Amino acid sequence: QVQLVESGGGLVQAGGSLRLSCAASGSILGINAMGWYRQAPGKQRELVATITSGGNTNYADSVKGRFTISRDNAKNTVYLQMNSLKPEDTAVYYCNADALTKGLRRTTSWGQGTQVTVSS
Fold first, then answer.
1. Which of 60, 39, 14 is nearest to 68 (CA)?
2. Radius of gyration of the chain (CA)
3. Which of 20, 31, 74, 93 has minimal CB crowding within 10 Å?
């Protein structure tokens, strides 16, 4: 009932920047938290950053000071600005949203993932 579509991944050299976007659509009454997670090969999915509808943010220690999460509530879109990228940031990045549907059902949705590759 809620679909998430990510964009903005790609290949970048170490020290470079990328901006990820994730747009939510569907039968949405409201979205509470939105966030980004990532999964590197052979590793578990981990939290990167989250943001509430009120703008409160939370970051993994490994990305603090380099990544910035933001959102446009009117567009149901969340962004992840990634600066000073490192090879260890290489992973598939997934968007996540905690939404309330028009049917008053709370759902947690995931995007399909977008690959971010940082070369050294």
1. 60
2. 14
3. 74
